[in-house]
Amino acid sequence: LPGLQALAIAFALEVSVGKTNTVMALNNSNVLLPCIFTTCIGFQDLIFTWHFNSTEMIYHGKIKSKASEPFLVARNPRVEFVGSTTGKDNNISILLKNVEFSDAGKYTCHVKNPKEKNAEHNATIFLTVVQKMVEADNTVTLIIVGVVGGLIGLLILFMLIKRVVLFIIKKTQDGKKECLVSSSGNDNTENGLAGSKAEQKAPPKA
Fold it and tell me: What PANTHER family would the database entry show (predicted)?
């Protein structure tokens, strides 16, 4: 039973940064770093911290209970708490203001719950800072669609030209056949007439 109790405690506290663990932000903008935690048996005097690259603590907060909002212990001047723990989710997200290129890196949301025998859990999110947002995927998709569409159009045009050419060739061949049949009929008629005239000649006198 002690083993099962320890297992339950180990899986009671969970921390998450959402479906994706990567965030991209423009230089000089504000960026949200999301984090929520869940606990099966509740919490008391819960402590949460945010660390940058595992060394620099940029936010330190404490929550007395589910009925109270977190209160600040310490923070970086550019970091603002934007979460809430009295609602449905235990949201301990922060807002990083005036992002700089040097802010790119790993941000870890760490939670410690004394009510669960000081059970600890954390989740990590990676921030990338860029000068300009580039929608590379959409551009590539548009290029691919354009190329495929162009190839299909060329194929259809080729098939139409082929049908027209075959139609013209067939008509030309049919016309030649008609000419040959007509010419052959005229020759036979002329030969027949010539033969008839020859037969109509009077026999030589004896």
Answer: MYELIN P0 RELATED, SODIUM CHANNEL SUBUNIT BETA-4
Annotated domain spans of the chain: 14-130
Residue 173 pLDDT > 80: no
Cα dihedral 76, 77, 78, 79 sign: positive
Q: Is the dihedral of CA 138, 141, 145, 151 positive or negative?
A: positive
Fold classification of 14-130 is: Immunoglobulin-like (2.60.40)
Among 51-55, 111-115, 146-150, which stretch is predicted with the lowest mean pLDDT? 146-150
pLDDT of residue 16: 94
Q: How far is CA 116 from CA 3, 12, 72, 154, in A?
A: 15, 8, 22, 68
Contact 69, 83 (CB under 8 A): no
| pTM: predicted TM-score of the whole model, two decimal places | 0.60
Burial of 27 per CB tally in 10 Å (0-12, 13-18, 19+): middle
